[in-house]
Amino acid sequence: MRIGELARATGTSVETIRYYEREGIIPAADRADNNYRDYSPEHLATLTFVRRARGLGFSMAQVRALLALSADADTPCADVDRMVQSQIEEVDRRIGDLEAMRAQLSGMLAACGGRRIGDCGVVESLANRPPAN
Amino acid sequence: MRIGELARATGTSVETIRYYEREGIIPAADRADNNYRDYSPEHLATLTFVRRARGLGFSMAQVRALLALSADADTPCADVDRMVQSQIEEVDRRIGDLEAMRAQLSGMLAACGGRRIGDCGVVESLANRPPAN
DNA sequence: CTTGACCCTGTAGTTGCTACAGGGTGCATA
DNA sequence: TATGCACCCTGTAGCAACTACAGGGTCAAG
To answer: Which domain of life is it from (chains A, B) (predicted)?
Structure first.
């Protein structure tokens, strides 16, 4: 299949696919006579894997590691589980950060009591309040 | 005050402060005879504002807008409230995305049933499962 | 024979910093 | 007096993970 088809099949842009190839995260495609890239079902599977892992928040480096682990059926599950577990922790951390931000932002709206910012706490809450902890 | 003091006072790195000045998000400091930057309390207030807004997830462009609004005491509160409200929505969107990721990741761990990935669903769940919706 | 949808390479831009390299300043101590 | 040290300066390059061209080739349909 050609790069455009692969792009549509995986919800990836053509330029991102070429970028992944340059980065070596997916293997280089074969080339047809006209120099167009020609992808196999294995490429499709690899790219699907990459996109899903990226969508779960794994970095490119982590995706590389996951691909390496997944290449060998004898890889102990624990190796992958550890990466998944620490990604869950990272996600939880980010959720916590965002919830703290959300609370601060809601507090700003609550501080708004006037018609003009000169009469109202909304801007002061940014300028003067101690860092949220 | 000198740049290092300002940095400590605001929890910002010296290079970030210089970066903000280059970007025009904080006004350029006066210079002492030795060409060292010399900051006023107004600089401190502005930088505090900037850091807090950045910490709430506002982009540099949004921080610029907030600074412009906050410069005039007659700015209607509603103008700022709108930005805060849409930032809350953005944060909620991100929290939702992260929670979906978290659920997928937990599902991967649950799919793990073997000792080697060849016997266990943890990797297949990345390669074959349809996109999470 | 031209239009249009594809494909190619290569390079530069994005966001918000961070990290040098290579140099100057100014005070305290040996 | 020398020298160390913490601090400051400018300028440029790097990071992640793409995204967006510019400038060109390919190929089937009308």
So the answer is: Bacteria
